[in-house]
Amino acid sequence: MNYTKEIREIATRLLENEQVDMVMAWEKGDLEYQTVPFIARTVDEVSRIVCDEYSIHNLSNSLLRFRDGQEKIAIVVKGCDSRGVVRLLEDNQFSRERLYIIGVACPGVKDPLLAMKQNSGFEKVQDQDEGLASKCRYCLQPNPVIYDELVGEEQPLTELQERFARIEEIEQMSADERYKFFEDMISTCIRCYACRQVCVACNCRTCIFDETRPQWVGRETNISDNMMYHLIRASHMAGRCVECGECERVCPVNIPLMLINRKLIKDVNGFFGPYEAGMEYVEGRKPPLSVYKENDPDDFL
Ligand code: SF4
Ligand code: SF4
Ligand code: SF4
Fold this sequence. Notes:
Layout: H1 4-16, E1 22-28, E2 35-40, E3 49-50, E4 73-77, H2 79-90, E5 99-104, H3 112-118, E6 149-151, H4 165-171, H5 175-186, H6 194-197, H7 223-237, H8 246-250, H9 257-272
Parallel strand pairs: 1-4, 4-5, 5-6
Antiparallel strand pairs: 1-2, 1-3
Bound molecules: iron/sulfur cluster (3 copies).
One iron/sulfur cluster binds at residues 189-195, 251-253, 255, 257.
């Protein structure tokens, strides 16, 4: 993927015409496989913009920094990122009028961490997918679902036979085996909260994990507090996770967080579906678990 030229042209036009106050995109880091988020506020800065095979960050989460402002913002989104924008619109965190969405049809991006390992001089990692990021192997929507302008040829949608395969295997375990599986999985969590920080669906102004009066979850990294953290976050993601894979990508200890997210997606789909979060923006429409009816069954409490 290389849409740098097209994105620069669009950004120049938007800034010159004063249609937007800034353009959220990416710029090149120090190394060939480093592409990092960047905001261009002037036409002079546009020459720093890139949109290439390492533009992996989902920029939609960055909009939260501007949610209380008035600026008009252009943002470049891949398919998965665009679902994050829908998440923010549905959650009333941003208004559509303040956005100019530049969609890019995405053939998949490469994993910079994998590239770094391959270039480190240490043991090379076996990779059959030519560096493709893990999240792109399960991509449901490579084309932006919401945009003002589209760059690139629409990508074919693929049938994801394997999407829930591992979830179904885990569902076959006994309750004790499952508990042990998840206990082992999260025992290495250092509670750095990177998964929360990067997540576009984690957009509460005050996060429950930061509250101290009352303190809902202890600050230690023991199994019990880790379990509480992941259970609470999972319940907050149900019906809201847009499957962008960013949480798993940034986890420094490689916890396979998409297993939790996909179990939620599978169940919400089963109970309320067919439903995929953030697949289209319909003004006023809410995710399944964000609305209630007075006659909703409540016999689980
Ligand atoms: S998950 Fe899909 S849209 Fe997102 S970067 Fe990968 S291929 Fe592109
Ligand atoms: S990013 Fe990983 S280590 Fe950090 S809190 Fe999340 S799961 Fe734990
Ligand atoms: S939980 Fe993970 S995959 Fe889901 S929206 Fe948040 S960062 Fe993306």
